[in-house]
Amino acid sequence: MGDQSAIDIRGVAKSFAQTTVLHDITLEIRDGEFFTMLGPSGSGKTTLLRMVAGFESPDAGTIRLHGDDVTQRPAHLRPVNTVFQDYALFPHMDVVTNVEYGLRVAGVGREERRRKAEAALALVRLEGFAGRRPAQLSGGQRQRVALARAIVNEPSVLLLDEPLGALDLKLRQEMQTELKAIQRRIGITFLYVTHDQEEAMAMSDRIAIMNQGVIEQVGSPQEVYELPATAFVASFVGTSNVIVRRGRTQSLRPERLLLLGPSMIAPDDVTFEWGNVVDVVYLGMVTRIFVGLDGGDDLVAVQTNDGSSTGAPVPRRGDRIRVAWRPEDAFDLETAVV
Amino acid sequence: MRAKAARLGLWLWVIGVLVFLFAPIVTIILFGFDRSVIETWPIRHWTLSWYSVAWHDPQVRSAFVLSLKAAVAATILATILGSMAAFGVHKARFFGRDSISLLLILPLALPGIITGVALNSAFRWAGITLSLWTIIVGHTTFCIVVIYNNVIARLRRTSNTLLEASADLGATGLQTFRFVTLPTIATALVSGALLAFALSFDEVIVTTFTAGAQNTLPIWIFGAIRLGQQLPEVNVVVTLVVILMFIPILIAARLTGSDNFVPRVRATRIAK
Asked: What's the ipTM?
């Protein structure tokens, strides 16, 4: 099989007590892919990840790793490794002992595992930290140790459970770039779980958007942003205005909206509706304008503060205004759940 | 100014409490150096001779050895049983789990006299002659509690993801136990064992009902005080016991007080 999938999830379902956490999930993750499961808390994404790791077993369905059915296989026999949200570093071991743990329990000789552990530490740019204890490291450093500890075993799939959640914004952005670079270098499949859509967009080859135990859409970052399949995807990935026109639920991205003052002439190819400016929020790079349409819908539009602009004056609260969009920018959503 | 006065008052209070707690022990230590058999203050003739008497007293020696044997055996048994119980209760989810947890702790809360009487009649009913082994069983009942409590408290504080991480990295259950679980509970286990040893070593009531003809050290002390013929010798023995007991308790306090690995971290930071 040439392009065999790295992870093949078929018909997986799971309930805890009375609550169904996952409904009949089917998902294929390609070899070498950076794949993200994105969704709010309670969407089932972490449960699915834990099933791939072997910490939970599905009530129904199968999970295959590179063709092998591992559904019933215990965690320690699966060729996957996990980077945990709280890092789960062993507090009584120093950094290098943490990193070589997987090799040690696999019976790899002392010298070889030291060498590999040090190479892994170099990969995450933590040379010289081998003798430190986890308690002596910063959050970002711990995160790197957890990453090194997982990849040193050369797993066929690396699972990452919100690994950047505990870091501050700047460090998180740095780590995003770095994670992506590491993934490209070692070329193994990454299955990444996050609730942060920006993080998902920044790193992933493909994203599965999950909500209430079902997958709403799978696609590249561009696809899920520009062509959201459902109202949930439209509102969860980026900001979106969801409107119902002529019985059809449609999505409108704020940056695709044009705001026309009373004296401005509308271009030929747009439809527009009248409304009042409810609020104007200046955010530095962009300004967000909230408009209450006469028809009753509330829309949000974004204008880039790039100076050049269309020469359009920034609207002010209370202004009468037209909100215009090209028909092709309003596209139909599958479900009418708003 | 007011804060200063309050602090001074607080200090005086602390000192008062400490005096209240430790003055009797200090008195005993001092009277161990008194030549006279009748304890009167101030001490007129200081002497070390009672130390020699106590050292050469065969009764004291055999009582000491018996106490030591009982304490060591009870501690070992309790460490094994108590930690196993802690693992079981922590890990398994079964009906009646909380009741079992309570039942395990009960022997410590139960008056020693009840444990003693109960064990005594149980041994007699079963036709078991009282011996060193019955003492050990009696002591183990309350020593288990200390170990159990210590270990389960540590297990509850240990993040479950550590065990998951170990399995995720390919470790079998046994390897996880050896490399992760055991090191995490090690200090709790050692401090629990030391406390159990200290509890067993000076136990009187349960021992009275479970010991045969032999005396443990506390029982010998109890008897000697009642006879009143050799008070200074008793004082000397008590002094030695206090010193001996201080060591394990101090170590235990250090082990549990220092939250896991903090001291080592601090030490390395200072070194830099």
From this structure: 0.81
